[in-house]
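Data availability (excerpt). All sequences and predicted token strings are deposited with the supplementary files. A representative entry, Potassium channel tetramerisation domain containing 21, is shown inline so that the format can be inspected without opening the archive.
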Amino acid sequence: EVFNANIFSTSCLFLKLLGSKLFYCSNGNLSSITSHLQDPNHLTLDWVANVEGLPEEEYTKQNLKRLWVVPANKQINSFQVFVEEVLKIALS
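Structure token line:
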């Protein structure tokens, strides 16, 4: 399953906070989502849920990224979990 989220915020500080907590997993490495900011107020995220049995090489080959919450080390495998995590970050 592929997920897409377009986030607009008048607070660029909020998007920076998201960038400090949400990370893409690609090629077996975590990288901050901040490099995907389109401008200081707009963020677009695309990620996939974990696919049982799919080797890491296949994610890399197909350019598939997974989304993680750090430091909780929690993978986001549904849009509901994504919304919950964004709300937790916003209210922290």
